[in-house]
Task: structure prediction
Amino acid sequence: MAARVQSNFRYISGAVFIHALVIGLFIAASLYSRQTVVPHLGIQARLVDRDSLNPTKPAPDPKLQEQEKIEKQKQEQLEQQREKEKQEKEAQLQAEQQSKEREAEQKRIVEAQQEAQRQKQAAEQKRVEEIKQKQREVEQKRQNEIDAKERVRREAELKAQLADEEGRDQAVNAGLLNQYAALIRQRVERNWIKPPSAQSGIKCEVRVTQAVGGMVLSVAFGKCNADAAVRQSIESAVMRSSPLPPPGDSRLFDRNLSFIFNPAE
Result:
C-alpha cells in the first residue's frame, strides 16, 4: 500500500509540474503580447489548487483510507502496549529494588540486634567472670589467712611439744618419773589382797590406761609369772587405787603408763 501511495504521489507531482510549466509559458506570452498592444494593461493573479489543475487525478480509495486508518490504530496500540510494558517493567524493577532495600534493611536490623545481644552476653559473661575472680581472690586471701594461722598454731604446738619433751626429759633425768611410778606401785601394793595361790617372787608388768585426773579406765598385763587368780587380784588392787596419784611434774602425766608389780614378801 505504501508503494502505491508513493507511485501516485510521483505521478501527481509530475503532472502538476508540467501543468505549472505550461501555464507559466502561457502567462508570459500573454503578458508580452498585451504590453505591445496595451502598454498599461494590469495583470491579476490568483492562487490555484494544483489538484484542480490535474483533472486526471484519481479519487481517494475508501478501502485504502480505512486500511491506513486501521494500520495507524494498530501502530498506536502497539506503541501504547510497548509503553505500558515499559512502565510495567520499570514498576517491577522499582518494586524489586524496594524489596531488596527492605530485605537489606531488615537484615541490617537483625544483624544489629544480634550484635547487640552478643555484646550484652559478652558484657554479662565478663561481669560474672569478674565476680568469680573477686570471689576466688577473697577465698584465696581467707585461705591464706587460715593457712597462716594454722602454721602459727602448729609452730606453737610444736614449740610447746618440744618444750614439754624437753621438760619431760629433764624431769626423767631428775628421777621424777621413777618417783611417779613408785607412788603408783606403792598404792596398788597397799590395796592388794594376796590370794591363797600367790607364791613368792611374783613379778608382773602392769599396763594402766587412765583419764585426766588419774581415773583408771582399764588394766592389762605384759610379762607376768602369776596365775589367773593373782592377776585378778592385782587388777582389783589397781581399780581400788583409782584415782591414781598425780606426778610431781604435770609433764610426766601419761594416759598409758606401766609399772612392775613385785610385792615384797
